[in-house]
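Q: What changes when pyridoxal-5'-phosphate is included in the input?
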Amino acid sequence: MNANTNTNNNASPPMINFAQPCLDDATIQDVADVLRSNWITSGPKTVALEQALSAGFGGRPTRMLTSATAAMEVALELCGIGPGDEVITSAQSFFSTMNMIAKLGATPVFVDCDLVSRAINLQQVEAAITPRTRAIMPTHFPGALVDMDALMGLAQKNSLRVIEDAALVQGSYWKDRPIGSFGDIATFSFHPNKNMTTIEGGAIVVNTEAEAKRVDILRFHGITRLPDETRDVVVAGGKFNLSDVSAAIGLRQLPQLEGFLQKRALLVERYFSQFPQVPGAVLPPRDFPRQSWNMFCVLFPFSEMQLSRKAFRDALRQQGVATGVSYEALHTTTLGRSYGYKEGQFPNAERIANETLTLPLHVNMSVEDVDRVCAAVAAILKR
Ligand SMILES: Cc1ncc(COP(=O)(O)O)c(C=O)c1O
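A: The predicted holo structure follows.
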């Protein structure tokens, strides 16, 4: 058992969490130093983290915010998107994409995704473009990215902005370039479940310094500073600046990212080699080089297995295996339905929503933990 694996008080096996951050003593020391420094909100640590991240994104201007969700909101504002505008996005993603489009008064236009890679279906994107379309907002999933050449070509052909939801894929490469180093706007998450963490936190990568300056305004009350040292508000900005406490964590995490990703890749290889044969199950894509593995999601044909996902998850939990659901289908949420969508429209997104299970994957796990998860899956299915 490794040091970070939770233990229960009763006789049940130790719990393997489905996600977990990896924070070392040096990080805790740095946090204590920031707390003692009397400068705990956005300051030098945040700027240093932005510069360090930017270097990994090909020097593109990068700004930290309090979450990827905040980064998406600011990205949409940066593109001037609002009421009357349409943004094409995948029906299979985390709620933030739909929510931020809707929150700004624009209309989320859903399309389906690929069943295995979960990449947004670009043919359906093209078919969904109308004179009101302003942007495409795809989500990258671990294992295979959205085809960036095809996506950017489509966007350019139709004069559309692209806001990549790269929350799950920091460290993934499209051909020979890291995600975030090209494209239009990309947003990343540093939530504790992600490839690296700042507790809560997100980043936005933009095209120009002028756009980055606009982000500065949008993330902090819409304020600009005047020569007489008073302030003006030029836009109804939000309050999304990151604290230096969080940034100090990020500065320690970033140099470890490559090692974290290698460990995740090792664990994923073990999953692929040890996963039991389950007729009808769909494993993540495997054949794409230089991908980062934030999650290991498997589709189980629950209806054919005569077992509900809830019962399966409960049985796994009893064996000390915690799981997640990534993700529900956006168009069948109450908010999604309010735009006129209904079940049956996006079969892949719906099948993923009904059949997916996120198995434990984090850098504190050992290959033996993966074997335990696989054995627990096999034992429950045998029953
Ligand atoms: C695909 C995806 N996009 C965006 C987000 C939002 O990230 P944050 O919690 O930093 O707002 C998440 C969070 O889990 C996510 O999984």
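Observations recorded in class: The domain at 25-255 is CATH 3.40.640.10 (Aspartate Aminotransferase; domain 2).
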